[in-house]
Write a structure and sequence with these properties.
about 270 residues; alpha/beta; Rossmann fold; 7-stranded parallel sheet; two-stranded parallel sheet; 9 strands; about 35% helix; about 15% strand
């Protein structure tokens, strides 16, 4: 996808997932993933992403990246995710990228609408050129939280973007990923996450609940890295959106797709 074409359609918003049945890029088996997968984890300035990287390092070869240096014992490369030789080198030899574009704030949302999707575009372009097999984008369940709380909202519901909440950049990042999947350049798995909490933090009290223990996040990302990709409608497609939450009574975001495609079952509540 050319940058001009991307910019021309950049204002469009991501929709449902039912229509995506594109042919798959080649992906490794679960056995190969468990023994020889190199994973690049972005946004390492976030403590949650560093902890995720440390957990994944028990099974995969992990590289971390962020715009500025961070304190970590894992292999780390500072990168602003701008095009050039440095970004090309960052993704060389990588099979899977786990990317989190953190939401902005109401005050910096306009700035993040420009920066987040632009940096992600450069990352995905370099990933395609390097032969990366799979991109896992960590999105937010907040994109579909605006519907009536009485509704059960699955992954085929269209994101309901609300301005001035900080989540518009996340929605545009989903759209950017979808364009690469639509052109069959990358396989993209979007995990829409509940509000992240550490094991020691109190659980959010919103009703209905929509939160995610970081240990369940680690389990879900591991499964997304290892998942096989059969060439039929039962498995991961070139574009798959999946809700990931921990156990909580009254959950209105069904997890059937996570169970079916990833074998994910929340362990914590």
């Amino acid at each position: 996808m050319k940058r001009r074409a991307f910019l021309q359609v950049g204002a469009a918003l991501a929709g449902g997932t039912a229509a995506w049945r594109a042919a798959e890029p080649a992906v490794c088996s679960a056995e190969e993933a468990a023994t020889g997968t190199t994973v690049l984890v972005t946004s390492a300035q976030l403590g949650s992403m560093r902890r995720l990287g440390a957990g994944l390092a028990e099974r995969f070869a992990i590289r971390l990246t962020a715009a500025e240096a961070v304190d970590t014992e894992l292999p780390f490369t500072a990168s602003p995710l701008e095009p050039g030789e440095a970004l090309d080198a960052l993704v060389q030899g990588v099979q899977t990228i786990v990317h989190a574009g953190p939401p902005g704030t109401p005050e910096n949302e306009v700035e993040q609408v420009d920066a987040g999707p632009r940096q992600l575009f450069h990352l995905l372009h370099a990933a395609h050129a390097a032969g990366v097999r799979r991109v896992i984008y960590l999105s937010s369940i907040e994109l579909v939280s605006g519907y009536d709380p009485a509704y059960l909202v699955d992954e085929d519901w269209r994101p309901w973007g609300e301005i001035n909440r900080g989540y518009l950049p996340v929605q545009l990042n989903e759209f950017t990923c979808r364009e690469f999947a639509r052109e069959r350049k990358l396989q993209v798995v979007v995990l829409r996450l509940g509000t992240l909490v550490t094991p020691d933090e109190p659980r959010p009290t919103e009703d209905p609940p929509a939160w995610l223990d970081e240990r369940d996040l680690l389990h879900a990302v591991r499964r997304a890295i290892e998942a096989e990709s059969p060439f039929d409608a039962r498995g991961l497609q070139a574009w798959s959106v999946i809700h990931i939450l921990s156990r909580a009574p009254g959950n209105r975001f069904p997890l059937q797709r996570a169970r079916r495609l990833l074998g994910y079952e929340p362990q914590f509540g």
